[in-house]
Amino acid sequence: QIIHPQRIDVDKSLQAISKMLARLLGEDIEINMIIASDLWHIHADQTQFEQVLINLAVNARDAMPQGGNLTFEAKNVILDQTYVERHYEIAEGAYVLLTISDNGEGMDKETMAKIFEPFFTTKGMGKGTGLGLATVYGIIKQNGGEILVYSEPGQGTTFKIYLPRHEEASVSPIVVKATSQDMAMGTETVLLVEDDEMVRTMTVEILTSLGYSILEAANGEEALQTCKRYHGPIALLFTDVVMPKMNGAELARRVLTLRPDIKVLFMSGYTDDAVVRHGILQDDVHFLQKPVTPKVLAQTLRTVLDPPSA
């Protein structure tokens, strides 16, 4: 499509569209807005930006036939070269990250793999064209951004959209290149629990490069078996929150009975607000959103592992 990129105040756009969405979605959908106070402006087509928000909101409504919560979160992020090479097809630099989360029916991995394909739909005959998410994907890519999706059956869905910051004429683009010398290293043993093989492999690579010894598990049962069989110390349980059969919170409770001194760090593609709303986690635990930059991961690991000085 022909686009007309311009400077967009994301905060004002979200506040304005929330009123329209409240009428469109109905009273049984609660809309929440969590917007950073210093949010940058973005460089995108205004009409297309609003079309993305409406498309994702309507999809979320359809996934919550009995009603539910729809949460929009917006914050500033800086992606370095190492990070984008691992996760995205976008340039390094400054972006606004917009996250749209629902607590609806969710999707399995087979469905998630197809949702951006033209004409693919999970809706019944006459209830959708299948063009919604393909259109969203095209708009985000055409405006120089990236879109990721996280979902599990029965656990809702989170879309993460990165759109480039609008750079004022007097402002140089922000580029941060992280090196291993910039990052806090460690030598402890970490038990990593992640059901997505690609994410697990990538995280092992990062943790190993930071100096940690890694024990891997694809699910909660494997993790418990590892805790019983491994006789050395395990300093940290680093686990996904939403997993089949046993979620991260239940796993942590059971691991702590076996190893009371172990530290716990949760991660999820869902936002921290979403997992707290689901009742899976309390709001005072250590938590990281996927995908996470190596530098943030390194800093967080040391925060969790190093006790505060007296």
What does this structure look like?
The chain has helices at 10-25, 46-62, 81-87, 109-112, 132-142, 197-209, 220-229, 248-258, 272-277, 294-305, and strands at residues 5-8, 29-35, 42-45, 68-79, 93-102, 146-151, 157-164, 189-193, 213-217, 236-240, 263-268, 287-289. The strands form three sheets. It has a five-stranded mixed β-sheet with strand order 2-4-5-7-6. The chain has 310 residues and is of the alpha/beta class. Helix 1 packs parallel to helix 2 (46-62) and helix 7 runs parallel beside helix 8. A hairpin with a 5-residue loop joins strand 6 (146-151) and strand 7 (157-164). 35% of the residues are buried. The longest helix is centred in the N-terminal third of the chain and has 17 residues, at 46-62.
SSE arrangement, N to C = EHEEHEHEHHEEEHEHEHEHEH
Radius of gyration: 20 Å
* Number of helices, counting only DSSP H or I runs of 4 residues or more: 10
Strand content: 15-25%
Count of distinct strands: 12
Structural class: alpha/beta
Major β-sheet, in short? 5 strands, mixed
Query: Roughly what percent helix?
Result: 25-40%
Order of strands side by side in the largest beta sheet? 2-4-5-7-6
State the end-to-end CA separation: 60 Å
Q: Average pLDDT across residues?
A: 83
Backbone shape: globular
Low-confidence segments: 124-130, 169-181
